[in-house]
Design brief:
Helices cover about 65% and strands about 10% of the residues. The longest helix is centred in the middle third of the chain and has 76 residues, at about 280-355. It has helices at about 10-55, 60-65, 75-90, 95, 100-125, 155-170, 175-195, 215-230, 235-240, 245-275, 280-355, 360-380, 390-395, 415-435, 490-500, and strands spanning about 385-390, 405-410, 415, 445-455, 465-475, 505, 510, 515-520. It has about 525 residues and is of the alpha+beta class. It contains 15 helices and eight strands. Strands 2, 4, 5, 6, 7 and 8 form a six-stranded mixed beta sheet that branches. Strands 1-3 form a two-stranded antiparallel ribbon. It has two domains: about 30-235, no CATH class; about 355-520, 2-Layer Sandwich (Heat Shock Protein 90). Helix 12 packs across helix 14 (about 415-435).
Length: about 525
């Protein structure tokens, strides 16, 4: 007999593991955001270091990507190296919390922002503050054309924006400021890079953008993205690491939507420049390809969201089933507690009626309560699922008599609702055997055989047919037993328990060779 309302431990472990996996995935995404931010900071540190090396060791390739293009000034490379280092330190949780490291990042970011601000002040006020060649003289710039070593206005402005943005990362209330400044710097750098991609000189070579080196524009883009990813709790990064459908959509679509139209447009523009195709043809192909990419992204996202929605519905159904299971468990627990209290009261009354003295009453009551406690302990080990009949018997029998008990036949499962009744009946039979029967003698043996015995029509539902399992209880090797003339309270208790609580029947027989009983227990 197995209980239908028993809790499955495997489902509990699966649900607990699923929740832990979701929390772990969220933490992994946040760690990924910080690591990527630190990587972008290190790339900017490398870019700045290469620019500094180009000036110190006079390597033109490190100052400019190719001859004729704008060069990265010394102050520009210094700002990239400093801000990149500060961003990299911020993205390393193991060192970012140290006071010395925090002070170093504040100092470096403040110097980069101050250098950019002083350069802007020189351009706007028409003064020379001496910051352009403060660290190294620029012999390659004609002073009649431009101030040697001076950053272009947009380069200085971007360094000021990103320096303040890195500073603001240390204050939670300034997260919006850091994100806004990083987005502004990203926009200016992207427009300048588009000028190089489409040969639009006016986007990077005249005011308000000044002359920005191509690797400077790339560095600003990398640095801006690093700042945006540096705070996974707020701003743009919080959306990227979010486990919601919105966060998943952004992570899936942003790389494709952000890069594919740009790549398609650049390739088509280059083909048009080489006169490979006419203007109308290149415009039609570019529009068609970009439309196809966007439509494909929308379909892909829709498919992904549908899968996530199905997973969400499954999770909600799992939670609902868990709530229903817990409700049933609470109801069953309440029912069992009340039944146990009623049974305990009945045991006290029966023991008091049959006992001839207080010690006898105490002994009988203790044995019967011990049977209930043994059943409870066995159910607890099985996590309140169905327990085998032989485990209940061995749990109730004295350990030193286990060798005298043999149980044969298929496994008979006892549901949690019936375990107490089976245990009390078994306790009565074991007590009689230990006092008067086979288990009293060292040579005595108890053989229990489980077999199928057909079906019955229970009184509660005469039209229904319930499968039966017969349990044959036979004692041998003990003293001769005389059939009692008047059934005792223990006999009455067993018959009533089997009939009304277990829904079966029991036949008790006492032969000179030993007790020979038969239970008929219905299977659930």
């Amino acid at each position: 007999m197995s209980g239908s309302s028993s809790q499955n431990p495997n489902s509990q472990e699966f649900e607990s593991h699923d929740l832990k996996s979701q929390d772990l995935n969220a933490q992994n995404l946040k760690s990924w955001s910080l690591r990527l931010s630190a990587l972008f900071g290190l790339l900017c540190l490398l870019l700045g270091g290469m620019g500094l090396a180009g000036w110190i060791f006079d390597v033109p390739t490190l100052r400019s990507v190719r001859p004729g293009l704008a060069t990265m000034k010394f102050n520009n490379a210094l700002c990239f190296a400093g801000t990149g280092l500060a961003l990299a330190l911020h993205g390393m949780p193991r060192v970012a919390g140290r006071i010395a490291v925090r002070r170093l990042t504040v100092l470096i970011a403040s110097m980069a922002a101050l250098l950019g601000l002083l350069t802007l002040a020189q351009d706007s006020l028409g003064v020379h503050l001496g910051v352009d060649e403060l660290f190294l003289r620029d012999p390659f710039t004609d002073s009649l054309i431009a101030a040697p070593g001076r950053l272009s206005p947009v380069t200085a402005f971007n360094h000021f924006l990103l320096g303040v943005a890195v500073l603001a990362l240390g204050w939670k209330r300034c997260a919006w400021l850091s994100m806004t400044l990083a987005l502004a710097a990203l926009l200016f750098a992207f427009i300048a890079l588009m000028g190089y991609a489409f040969d639009a000189t006016s986007l990077y070579a005249i005011v308000p953008f000044g002359t920005i080196a191509v690797h400077t524009a790339v560095g600003f883009i990398v640095l801006s993205l690093g700042v945006l990813l540096a705070d996974p709790e707020r701003g743009v990064a919080s959306l990227l690491v979010d486990r919601s459908p919105g966060g998943s959509m952004v992570r899936r679509s942003l790389p494709i939507v952000g890069l594919m139209p740009l790549l398609i447009s650049v390739v088509i523009f280059r083909l048009y420049e080489e006169k490979s195709f006419g203007a109308g043809f290149t415009l039609a192909v570019s529009t068609s390809l970009q439309t196809a990419v966007l439509v494909g992204v929308v379909i892909w996202i829709g498919h992904a969201l549908r899968k996530q929605d199905a997973a969400r519905r499954d999770a909600e159904l799992l939670v609902q089933r868990q709530a229903e299971r817990e409700h049933l468990l609470l109801q069953e627990l309440d029912h069992r507690v009340r039944n146990n209290l009623v049974a305990l009261q009945a045991l006290v009354d029966l023991s008091a009626q049959s006992a001839r003295s207080v010690p006898e009453f105490t002994q009988a009551l203790r044995a019967r309560i011990g049977a209930v406690a043994g059943a409870h302990q066995t159910l607890s080990r099985a996590r309140w699922s169905a327990v085998p009949f032989h485990e209940l018997i061995l749990a109730l029998a004295p350990p030193d008599r286990h060798h005298a008990i043999a149980i044969h036949g298929p496994t008979l499962l006892i549901s949690p609702a019936h375990a107490n009744g089976v245990a009390m009946v078994a306790q009565e039979l074991l007590t009689n055997s230990l006092k008067y029967g086979a288990l009293q003698s060292a040579s005595g043996r108890l053989e229990i055989r489980i077999d199928e015995s057909g079906s019955i029509q229970p009184a509660s539902a005469p039209s229904a047919s319930v499968a039966l399992r017969s349990v044959y209880w036979r004692e041998t090797g003990g003293p001769a037993i005389v059939t009692p003339v008047v059934p005792g309270l223990g006999t009455v208790l067993m018959k009533e328990l089997v009939r009304f609580e277990l829904g079966g029947s029991i036949e008790l027989a006492y032969t000179p060779g030993g007790a020979c009983h038969c239970w008929h227990l219905p299977e659930s």
